[in-house]
């Protein structure tokens, strides 16, 4: 296996070569824009790494990796519309830079493009990839619907929240890794184990993202810090703060997550203060660590060499220690 930067360079070069602006520009310019914004490229890198880990040619997995990246960015365009988010990776969101209708249609085109990339594989591989992709795409939609439903509910449980982030985020990480294993011809058992590793790592990743939404560096986070608080999202931070707080703080927190002030500065700062003083922030960091450890434990089940397991573990450590 190569180091992360090697896969990143190879993937970005392939993306730049495959994704060309064409007519009508009003449809394809937004697609090119969102894909060129960069981001962590977490999911496609995992696809390439996994293919390599199972002794496949990572180059053969480039189309599967690109499919995952295009689908992920399609979902971001539509999520940003639903959340009315102004920023994505530090730049205007597609619907802000163009308009909502453009965001919807360009996103739809990206979903079709993602499926088209499976056509480069033999029929059996195509079928396995498409079956996994369809299952995962539907689960992501279910997760997004749960997320929206939770905004208007006052009785969301921690278990419900964890199920929501599993569907909205973690299953796509698991699918990215399983696609690499499928392309490499790994056994069904190894495919399932590597999916589970990715799923657990994906939950840890989303918990970390939720934590950084409140406590990340606004200069480097890339998104609007406090966005989840503004949108009244019932994150793990919020739910644990309700569980741990005294009655006065519980009432204040419930009040804050039931209003939408034009200037949310005080709302954000007050919520963050309760997250910290209640112990919710510490509990969230602990849960991130717990899921990361569970993910690493699954690596023991994979029939790959120890040095390859160490590479995947190193990637997970880097991911969980990020601050942006």
UniProtKB/TrEMBL annotation:
Keywords: Magnesium, Metal-binding, Transferase. It comes from the Bacteria. GO terms for biological process: isoprenoid biosynthetic process. InterPro entries: Isoprenoid_synthase_dom_sf, Polyprenyl_synt, Polyprenyl_synt_CS. GO terms for molecular function: metal ion binding; prenyltransferase activity. Transmembrane segments: none annotated. This is Geranylgeranyl diphosphate synthase type II. The keyword Lipid metabolism does not apply. The keyword Protease does not apply.
């Amino acid at each position: 296996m190569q180091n992360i930067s090697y896969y990143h360079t190879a993937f970005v070069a392939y993306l730049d070569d495959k994704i060309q602006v064409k007519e009508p520009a009003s449809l394809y310019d937004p697609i090119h824009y969102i894909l060129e914004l960069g981001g962590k490229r977490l999911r496609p890198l995992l696809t390439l790494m996994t293919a390599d880990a199972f002794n496949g040619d990572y180059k053969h997995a480039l189309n599967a990796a690109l499919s995952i990246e295009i689908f992920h960015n399609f979902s971001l365009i539509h999520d940003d519309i639903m959340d009315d988010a102004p920023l994505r990776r530090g730049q205007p969101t597609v619907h802000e830079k163009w308009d909502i209708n453009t965001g919807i249609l360009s996103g739809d085109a990206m979903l079709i493009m993602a499926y088209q990339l499976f056509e480069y594989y033999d029929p059996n591989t195509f079928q396995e990839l498409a079956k996994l992709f369809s299952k995962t795409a539907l689960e992501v939609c279910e997760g997004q619907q749960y997320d929206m439903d939770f905004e208007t509910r006052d009785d969301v449980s921690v278990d419900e929240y964890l199920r929501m982030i599993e569907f909205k985020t973690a299953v796509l990480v698991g699918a990215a890794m399983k696609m690499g294993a499928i392309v490499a011809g790994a056994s069904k058992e190894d495919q399932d184990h590597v999916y589970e590793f990715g799923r657990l790592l994906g939950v840890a990743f989303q918990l970390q993202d939720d934590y950084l939404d409140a406590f990340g560096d606004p200069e480097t986070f890339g998104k609007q810090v406090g966005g989840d608080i503004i949108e009244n999202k019932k994150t793990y931070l919020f739910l644990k703060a309700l569980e741990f707080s005294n009655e006065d703080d519980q009432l204040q927190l419930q009040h804050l997550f039931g209003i939408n002030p034009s200037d949310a500065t005080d709302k954000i700062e007050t919520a963050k203060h309760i997250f910290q003083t209640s112990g919710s922030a510490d509990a969230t960091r602990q849960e991130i660590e717990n899921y990361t450890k569970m993910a690493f434990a699954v690596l023991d089940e994979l029939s790959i060499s120890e040095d390859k397991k160490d590479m995947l573990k190193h990637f997970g450590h880097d991911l969980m220690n990020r601050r942006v």
